[in-house]
Each structure stands twice: as C-alpha cells, then as structure tokens.
Amino acid sequence: MGKATGFLEFGRADTPYRPVEERLRDWRDVQIDPPVEAVQEQAARCMDCGVPFCNSGCPLGNIIPDWNDLAYRDKWQDALTRLHSTNNFPEFTGLVCPAPCETACVLGINQDPVTIKQIEWEIIRRGWDEGWVRPQGPKRRTGRSVAVVGSGPAGLAAAQQLNRAGHTVTVFEKQDRIGGLLRYGIPDFKLEKWIVDRRLDQMREEGVSFQAGVEVGRDLAPGELRKSFDAVLLCLGSEDPRDLPVAGRELQGIHFAMDFLRQNNKRVAGDPIDPAEEILATGKHVIVLGGGDTGSDCVGTSHRQGAKSVTSIELLERPPEERDASTPWPMWPLVYRTSSSHAEGGEREFAVTTRSFEGSEGRVERLRAARLAFGDPDPATGRRPMDEIAGSEFELDADLVLLAMGFVHPLHEGLVEGLGVRLDTRGNVEAGPRDFATSEPGVFAAGDCRRGQSLVVWAQWEGREAARAVDRYLETSSLLQSRDGHY
Ligand SMILES: Cc1cc2nc3c(=O)[nH]c(=O)nc-3n(C[C@H](O)[C@H](O)[C@H](O)COP(=O)(O)OP(=O)(O)OC[C@H]3O[C@@H](n4cnc5c(N)ncnc54)[C@H](O)[C@@H]3O)c2cc1C
Ligand code: SF4
C-alpha cells in the first residue's frame, strides 16, 4: 500500500477548476491539473483495504489499489501498465466518468473517499506526455475480419481489442468524424477533442481502419456488410430521443438537446454552420428540460454562447444532500449533484412538469409548468406517485427550449430493421451480457444500443467484453482478458 498513515495525515483535495469568469470565455477543459506531488499525496490516502470495493464499484474492474500504490511510489509507467490492463482509454474515463468507484471506496464510509478519478487521469496524462503510450499492433493476423458499426467508446474499445487479437477491423461511422458521443455529444469543456484524435492515431497505427461518413443500412446494405465480414458488432448508441408531446411542441425554438450539442461541437471544431440551421442560445432565455449529463452540457454550452438566462427543469424531486438509507454504501448514491456547468450559473427547478409551450408567429416565447407533489412509494413497484399541486401553475420566458430527457433506444430504421435482429422489451438490441450475441448468427451488439443509455465507462466495458465474445466466436477461444479475469 502507499503510505500506511496517509488517510490519517491527508484530507481529500478535489481537482481544482478554472475560475468561472475565465472558463466561460472559451471551450477549453474546465479542470486544472494539480501538481504531481499533490496527486501522490492523494494516492497515499488509499488504505489498500482487504476487500477493495472501489474495484467492484468500477464497471471496468480497474485495479485501483495497485495503481494508487504505484503512483504514490513514483512508478508511473508501471501504474499505466496496470491501468491499461483493464481500461483501453483511461483519458476518457479520467475526465468524464462520474466515478462510481469513489462512492464505493471504503474510506468513504466515514471520511471523504480517495480521488481515484484524478489519479487515473494523472497516470494517463503522464503516460502520453512521457511517450509511454505506443501502438501495440498484433504479432500475427488471423485472416478474420470484423465490422464494428458505431465509433463511440463501445465501438472504439471493441475495435482496439479485436485488432490486438489479430483480426482485421473496420469501424464504420455515419457522422463525418469518429468518436460517437465523445466527439459530438460531450462538449470540449469536459473533453477536448485532440484527446480523442490522439487515441485514434494510436489505433490507426495499430492497424484499425476507420470509415467515417458511412451510414450502414443506408450507404452500405446490411446484407453486403454481412457478406464482406466474418463478424459484425453493433455499437450504435441509443439515439432515439425522448420527446415531450404537449401543446405547442411544434413551435420553432424547441430542439432536441443533441441537435444543439452536436452543432456546437462542430462549430468549436471550426466547421461552417449553415445560418438557416443555426441553434444558438446567445441573448436568449434558455430552458433545459432534463437534469442528467445531457441537460448539464446544454447548460454549460448555453452559458458559453451568452444566454440571457438558463433554467433547468427536472421532473423529479430535488435529491437529498447526503447519501440516505435508500442507497447505502457502497451503492451509487442518489444525492444532489452540482456539475461544473451548474456551478457556472443559472436556475434549477425540481419537481416541475411542463404543461405546454406558447408563442407567437410560430416561435416559442413561454413555457407553462406546474409543481408536483410526490406520495409514498408504491410497495409493489417502489415508484412514488406524483400529482400536480393545485394552483401551482407558473410561466417562464423561453426563447430556446432544449429537450434533454434521455433516449429511449437505438434507431430502428435502417440497419437494425435491415439485419432483422430481435429487440428487447425496451427496444434495445437483444444480446446477452456474456456472449453479446444477437438473434442473428455472427452479429453482436454492445454499448448503449444493447444496455440502454448509460455511461462512457460502461460502454468501454461492453466493448472490451464484446470483443472477447467475438474473438471466441471467430477463434473458439480468446486470449483477451475479461472483467472477471477469465481467459
Ligand atoms: C450529451 C451527452 C453527454 C454525456 N456525458 C457523459 C459524461 O460526462 N460521462 C459519461 O460517462 N457518460 C456521458 N454520456 C453518456 C455516454 O456518452 C454514452 O453512454 C456513451 O457514449 C455510449 O457509447 P456507445 O459507444 O454505446 O454509443 P455512442 O457514443 O452513442 O456512439 C454510437 C455511434 O454509432 C453511430 N451510428 C449509429 N448508427 C449507425 C449506422 N447505422 N452506421 C454507422 N454509424 C452509426 C452514431 O453516429 C454514433 O457515433 C453522455 C451522453 C450524452 C448524450
Ligand atoms: S473508470 Fe470510472 S469508476 Fe473506474 S476507476 Fe476510473 S473513475 Fe473510477
């Protein structure tokens, strides 16, 4: 372990953020890297406890106590090797993961948990800076080919693993750039895009082939895809957004969050935007409906575009400040969270339902809403009934409304229907969490299109595990390691 008395000597020091006035003037990362000695001090807080719950709290099974110890002892390259053994892209998780490992940290039972995510980022940051992250192409080629459809974290993790196992991998992506939501969902102020590009360069050098701007199911027929490759892995994401069919929904100025965020990431990348298509918050009263990551990213983007006001509306009640009995340690707690974007300003409303939108000349101008009261949980479902509070109706000015209420399932039209793969009851592609096999032989599925909308860390886990399943299908056994350590 790092330092036996570290957790007694040092308190938790979170990663610092740039001042709000400064960071609102640019699109760069909001975080500041602390000095390396400060990160080592944090690593010294790891107790190397008998049962490291952080390890099971991390979906990837990152071997956290090992790399905490190596970081503390200044063995950064060894720490990187340990980290990469379970995580293909620690730079993505080190920046955007909500860190369920930290809420499972044993120190967190009665003190502040170890800053695991910060240490993870420092290990990979140094790895790139020192030139330790090198292409690791396969020693031999199997002669088998795999098509990975979708280039988000699931598709990229799978492609890297399958290529390293010796298969010839082509990643198809319908957008003009590779990266999925890492590229065109998550804003630059959380994940600068050169960080994605750098990893793609490594993968190209390893031998992965990328084809952007190809929508499989439209530009390439599903039958053609199946004929050309020995296996197909669907990593399509969960793209069908949840809508709000209330009166006035058809008014101009009401958009799905992803249309706003994707366009802004393109703008930040230097792409020209057709003025007729522009969705801008500049000088507007912005309402964001939905309080998750997508909603929070709309808030931060609106601030940077110079919105007049930004109000987030969440249907559910404001969560408690502290972990309560419903989510005991080491579970992921339902608590009130303030993202870097929320900390930059704006209002947050909870337990509010949107009744209608109103406007004039076809443009939205107001949102009409009402407050909700929640009853006791239904013993059968655990759900709490909600009722509008009589007389609680209110209005908000709204020039731009962003719908960020989540995603229901992957798009069905085109590839999913064309392949004829079975869907589960929620409309996701049906495939098991061990074999990742769909109802069509040789076709596999991983990531949000299989498990439903989730997190980058889960997508990377899905990609790694699905790669192992595809490898076993092609080769009957696999040397790719799984989360559980099986070969
Ligand atoms: C705005 C936003 C912010 C988020 N922020 C965070 C965060 O901070 N932290 C976190 O952990 N998670 C976050 N998430 C969730 C996370 O991004 C996703 O869970 C993750 O990206 C899912 O990975 P994936 O590879 O399954 O799919 P995606 O990243 O969605 O990638 C799927 C890709 O498949 C492509 N595709 C689909 N169909 C086809 C086709 N027929 N042909 C070719 N290509 C196709 C799509 O264009 C897309 O690029 C966020 C999500 C959103 C929407
Ligand atoms: S990937 Fe996420 S859960 Fe796993 S160690 Fe990193 S921050 Fe923690």
Describe what this molecule looks like in 3D:
The structure is a single chain. With 487 residues, the chain is α/β, with parallel strands linked by helices. The protein folds into three domains: 6-130, Fumarate Reductase Iron-sulfur Protein, Chain B, domain 2 (Orthogonal Bundle), CATH 1.10.1060.10; 145-239 and 408-475, FAD/NAD(P)-binding domain, CATH 3.50.50; 243-405, 3-Layer(bba) Sandwich (FAD/NAD(P)-binding domain). It is 32% helix and 15% strand. It is built from 18 helices and 16 strands. It has helices spanning 6-9, 20-23, 36-43, 53-57, 64-72, 76-84, 90-96, 100-104, 116-130, 153-164, 181-184, 193-206, 222-228, 257-268, 293-305, 415-419, 448-451, 456-475, and strands spanning 145-149, 168-173, 209-212, 231-234, 240-241, 254-256, 285-289, 309-313, 347-349, 352-360, 363-374, 386-388, 394-397, 400-403, 407-409, 443-445. A five-stranded parallel β-sheet has the order 3-2-1-4-16, with helices on both faces. Strands 6-14-7-8-9 form a five-stranded parallel β-sheet. Strands 10, 11, 12 and 13 form a four-stranded antiparallel β-sheet that branches. The protein is globular and about 65 Å long. The model has no long low-confidence stretch (mean pLDDT 96). Bound molecules: flavin-adenine dinucleotide (FAD) and iron/sulfur cluster.
